[in-house]
Design goal:
Distance between the termini: 82 Å
Radius of gyration: 31 Å
Number of helices: 22
Shape: elongated
Mean pLDDT: 76
Strand order of the largest sheet: 7-6-5-8-1-9-10-2-11
Structural class: alpha/beta
Strand content: 5-15%
Largest sheet: 9 strands, mixed
Length: 620
């Protein structure tokens, strides 16, 4: 009787292996059947390995893109506001997901095979399952990078969807990677995996159940519906005129030194007249986020401004304000290819009203100059000059509304364009003129003249007799960022001279404005300066002496909440109470919320000029 041929013997061996795998439950269904059946072919050719990589990339990219799109949509509020955006977002994320999955699986496969070659056949299931779980955890961590969910997406229904769907998709991803790695290991080692006391399927479902048990209560614990509410009717009490000033790029130690050395007599006089100086830890967040928090006394999760810019992929209705690590892909790959529209964060993305917007209800005049989160400017009684107006005004027609300048008054008493022209022609301050030519021309337009324009506009607009005024100055921050590349001695000297010059200008302006206001808060923030970990807050209220406690910690939100109280507004339950070291008038009432801000026609402005302005100032 002739002996069986080699091919017949190999076929019999493969059938035995296939039967053994089937008995162990590896070839029942799903990803395992796809990859393990392919692994039992007799030769491990290069084309077969490429086919395996292609299959993993195709299926893995789809699951990864689904996980990331759900997480990204949840963070940006698209699951309820624009659910149809999920499909185009998923298609956009397939591109980076394919690259990541292909590279990640190739690296993971090399690592797993290196381990198995040292101990062929030993712990094959444990090694492949562990590697797959690690990959799933990495993808899940990327999806949950900016969670827990915030804003309107904290509704229990959405939280339940995220907490259930994401673990299930991650389970499928783990099954896919494990099946592919196990098939590759069987093909290259020609060995069967050892039996396990606990099956992989049981371990995977146990991990899913554990994740649900841990995540779901946490999600539901923070769940509340904070969708924009209609603005309530606000009762007003005895009100005083209040002023909010923000200065970026000033360290707390510099403020202490200048006040102690009598360089800022007006601010020092406020402290001598019952004011107080407190500190707060520096916040590592975008300036638009921090200064909008100051203006609304609400955290970013509530006011809605969480970055400087946003990206709107083609086919989507709403832009993505938060992108996490995907921002690199939008900026360096998708935008050059024309796949996304790069937009600044405009004022229409801010959900919460500012102090001056609330005070303007009923027709009372207000003033806001240069504050973050105000472009395009909203028409209010009085005058609003948006952040970046000095750079964007030349591109706008005189008297245009809804861009850099807006007013609801029939006749605007301040000619902003004329003021800008006068500032542009003003002689340089000696501190600026002493700088090297190239550096001087840059800082002149970006910092010194811009802040001078805002100060002069603020002075002129005080004739409107605003009940609430706000002023933001960015020159110290812009100067510091520009001088980082200069020699240390030159940079430090120029920074100190320019800082002293700018703060003296502010002190002079406050000296003339002081008689109009009954309460003032001046916030000095380190901004983007690499050194310095503390900011300073100066609080003063006419006729109400605060405790002069040294090194008192003041939260910016609570300090501004005191200005809300002084302006006669009721106490909102969403706001922290004013600082206890100062006496405050009793609120006329307590309300649940101030509601959402009113939209204006100016919110349709796309803001291309404003985006270029942010780039030129070094913010993007």
């Amino acid at each position: 009787m002739p002996s069986p041929s080699p091919s017949s013997q190999e076929s019999v061996a493969l059938e035995q292996v296939r039967a053994e795998l089937r008995n162990r439950g590896y070839l029942d269904h799903g990803f395992e059947r796809v990859f393990l059946q392919d692994a039992l072919r007799p030769q491990a050719s290069t084309s077969a390995l490429l086919r395996l990589l292609g299959r993993v990339t195709l299926m893995g990219a789809a699951l990864t893109a689904l996980v990331l799109s759900i997480g990204l949509a949840a963070v940006n509020g698209h699951l309820t506001a624009a659910p149809l955006d999920l499909l185009p977002l998923f298609l956009h994320l397939l591109i980076p997901a394919s690259v990541v999955v292909a590279g990640g699986f190739a690296s993971l496969a090399l690592l797993v095979l290196a381990l198995l070659r040292r101990h062929p056949g030993r712990h094959m299931v444990t090694v492949t399952f562990t590697a797959a779980v690690v990959a799933g955890v990495v993808v899940g961590a990327a999806a949950f990078y900016q969670l827990p969910l915030r804003g309107e997406e904290r509704s229990p229904l959405v939280l339940l969807l995220v907490a259930v769907v994401l673990p299930l998709v991650l389970y499928g991803l783990v099954q896919l990677i494990e099946g592919a790695l196990l098939g590759l290991a069987v093909r290259l080692t020609h060995r069967l995996p050892r039996r396990q006391l606990v099956s992989r399927r049981g371990l995977a479902w146990g991990a899913v159940v554990l994740a649900l048990a841990l995540l779901l209560p946490a999600f539901l614990a923070v769940g509340k519906d904070s969708s924009p509410q209609e603005a309530p009717s606000l009762p007003l009490g005895d009100s005083g005129n209040v002023l909010l000033v923000g200065i970026d790029g000033v360290n707390g130690e510099e403020v202490d030194y200048l006040l102690a050395s009598q360089e800022l007599p007006t601010l020092r006089g406020l402290l001598a007249a019952g004011g107080t100086l407190g500190s707060y830890p520096r916040r590592r967040e975008a300036p638009a986020v921090f200064w909008t928090t100051v203006a609304t006394a609400l955290p970013a999760a509530e006011h809605g401004v969480r970055s400087l810019d946003a990206y709107r992929p083609l086919g989507m209705q709403k832009p993505l304000v938060e992108s996490g690590w995907l921002r690199w892909y939008w900026l360096h790959v998708a935008e050059p290819l024309g796949l996304v529209e790069h937009r600044p964060v405009l004022s229409d993305l801010r959900r919460a009203p500012t102090l001056w917007e609330l005070a303007s209800r009923g027709g009372r005049p207000v003033l806001s100059v240069g504050w973050w989160g105000t472009y395009p400017a909203q028409a209010l009684p009085g005058l609003v000059v948006a952040h970046g107006a000095y750079q964007t005004l030349p591109q706008e027609a005189p008297g245009a509304q809804g861009g850099s300048v807006a007013s609801a008054s029939e006749t605007l008493q301040v000619d902003v364009q004329q003021l800008r022209g006068a500032v542009a022609a003003a002689p340089l301050t000696p501190a600026v003129a002493a700088l090297p030519k190239g550096l001087r021309s840059d800082l002149e337009e970006r910092a010194w003249r811009a802040d001078l324009f805002y100060l002069r506009t603020f002075e002129e607009a005080l004739a409107l007799e605003p009940v609430v005024a706000s002023l933001y100055l960015a020159a110290p921050d812009l100067v510091s960022s520009q001088l980082e590349e200069q020699p240390r001695a030159l940079g430090a000297l120029a920074r100190s001279r320019l800082l002293l010059r700018q703060l003296r200008l502010l002190d002079d302006v406050l000296s003339g404005a002081l008689p109009q206001f009954d309460g003032i808060a001046v916030i000095f923030d380190p901004g983007r300066r690499p050194e310095g970990d503390e900011g300073r807050i100066l609080l003063w209220s006419r006729g109400r002496a605060c405790e002069a406690v040294k090194e008192e910690v003041l939260d910016p939100e609570s300090a501004v909440s005191g200005l809300f109280r002084l302006s006669g507004l009721p106490q909102s339950e969403e706001l922290p109470p004013p600082p206890s070291l100062c006496p405050w008038p009793s609120p006329p009432a307590t309300v649940e919320t101030y509601g959402s801000r009113e939209q204006s026609a100016g919110d349709e402005v796309q803001g291309e000029d404003y985006l270029e302005n942010l780039r030129s100032l070094g913010y993007l």
